[in-house]
Amino acid sequence: MTQSRTFLLVPTSKLNLHTRKGSMTFLAEPHIDLQDAFLKMYQTYQDLAEVEWCASYADALADFPRFIRRLQDDSKGVGIPSDWVPTSHFWLVHEDRLGGTFRLRHWLTPVVAERAGHIGYDIAPPLRGRGLGHEILRLGLMEARKLGIHQVMAICSETNVPSRKVLIRQARMEGIRENGEVVYWLTTEMLRSVTLQPQT
After folding, report:
1. How far apart, in whole angstroms, are the C-alpha atoms of residue 42 and residue 140?
2. Contact yes or no for 156/163 (Cβ under 8 A)
């Protein structure tokens, strides 16, 4: 049985939680009951004027139920472009707050391999530098393994040093494109954990 503190956000009966026994850091599927927590996380991106993430999550401000339905449809491949693939979305719950998001594309096409790879993730500004990037990647790769994905492609900018440090911990091979993007291949078979830093 998980510790009661992990349930501060929503009742477990309403969410499909992905967690180790006794853990306070886990992935949850997007759900309407997480609206307040998600909007608080959004505000932390807005406070730092992180335009890319604010634009990505702007729909949540306008109509949160519709935003949730879109994420759920993404996972089923409903309403996506013809050259895209189903994408599962997960939110990182750390102690009593949302700390980031993880996106898992179910397979590669030439377009997906060129633009995004299998995975994408971000950590909310207040929780960066505490090992949560490593943890969300580890938990996300566990979800990839459940889908039968054993080799995972990830892409990040050559200048994104924090993400590169996270990816290289799990990576088995990498290459650099002419545009400065770094390509990583990660295995879902042997995943490395990291010690998380406590909140201050």
Report:
1. 21
2. yes
**Torsion angle (degrees, nearest 10) of CA 142, 104, 91, 71:** -140
Q: What share of the chain is helix, strand, coil (3-state, %, to 5)?
A: 40, 25, 35
Q: How far apart are CA 154 and CA 57, in angstroms?
A: 21
Q: From CA 62, how far away is CA 45, in angstroms rounded?
A: 16
Indicate the pTM of the whole model.
0.84
Confidence of residue 176 (pLDDT cuts 50, 70, 90): confident
**Rg, the chain, Cα only:** 16
d(CA 110, CA 99): 31
Which residue has tokens 């929780």? 127
* Averaged pLDDT for residues 15-41: 79
